[in-house]
Amino acid sequence: MIYAASLQAALVLTGSFAAAAAPGLGLAPHRAIYDMELGEAEEHSGIASLSGLMVYDFSGSACEGYSISFRFVTRFQSVEGGSQVTDLRTSSHESGDGYSYQFLSKTYVDQKLVEATRGTAKDLEGAKSVDLKEPEERAFEIDKSTLFPTVHLRKIIEAAKGGESFLVSEVYDGSETGDKIYQTTTVIGEPRLERIPVKGSADASVVNVPQVTHWPVTIAYFDSTVSDGGEQLPVYQLSFLLYENGISRRMSLDYGDFVIKGSLRDLELYEEVSCSN
To answer: Dihedral sign, CA of 239, 120, 147, 95?
Structure first.
């Protein structure tokens, strides 16, 4: 399913609504679980229902780098009555300085492996180099201004804290065939201050974290290889509430024909590790 690879790109690109931390930003290492469901679907989408679960684990520090482990399992029900289970599993590691990035992604459909991507990328003097191992072994360069996921999220939060409402970036995360570059436009709303409500907690109470500032954020993802001379439509749009500690909730992934919504079910905060001198 094309949506699975695109969802990986959306989630990993933005730190998967979670933490792709940077020194001094105070983002929280944590494990978050989200319930995913069909928000709405056009008749021609062929989708009758969708349910799923997303588990996202972020850990690390500015010294040792940041690791993300992500799994998203969904069951589609078609209008004809058929069903399909998609299981997306990814892991990545990005250096604390944002100069190197390692990634591994596997997509299973009905327990059969249908796509695998693996490689490394690093920032060189004049460009960024990518050493791809799967789906085929090859090396290539991308523009030096292209951002890895950690740096992208950091720039969004820095822009939000600075009162900016719009950000344009090209982003690389190694998703799909490993050579996809996304042109992204991010719209940032007005800041708010609150604790973080969790769907599964009693009467929508909050996890044991202090009040933190958050912003409504929408990121539109465009295929940078497509140019038809007219107004280009995004491949998808990702909307969520982004907290300044890197945790996110109330997500919506809009593909035009259908929308997937996610609710934060459970949140576990890990002990933060500071760099030793």
So the answer is: positive
Q: 42-45 contacts: CB < 8 A, separation 24 or more?
A: 42/256, 42/257, 42/258, 44/257, 45/257, 45/258
Rounded Cα distance, 17 and 252, in Å = 11
pLDDT in tens, 53-112: 999 998 877 778 888 898 999 998 888 888 999 999 999 998 878 789 999 999 999 999
Q: Which residues contact 122 (CB under 8 A, 6 or more apart)?
A: 99, 100, 101, 128, 129
Parallel/antiparallel/unpaired status of strands 83-94 and 65-78: antiparallel
Most confident region among 74-83, 121-130, 161-170, 225-234 by mean pLDDT: 161-170
The answer to which of 7-21, 49-63, 200-214, 244-258 has the lowest mean pLDDT is 7-21
The helix-helix angle for 2-13 and 149-161 (nearest 10°) equals 60
Kindly give, in sequence order, each residue whose CB lies less than 8 Å from that of residue 38, ignoring residues fewer than 6 positions away: 47, 49, 50, 51, 258, 259, 260, 261
For the chain, which residues make up each domain, given as ranges?
2-269
| Closest to 50 measured CA to CA, from 202, 266, 259 | 259
Distance CA 102, CA 91 (A): 8
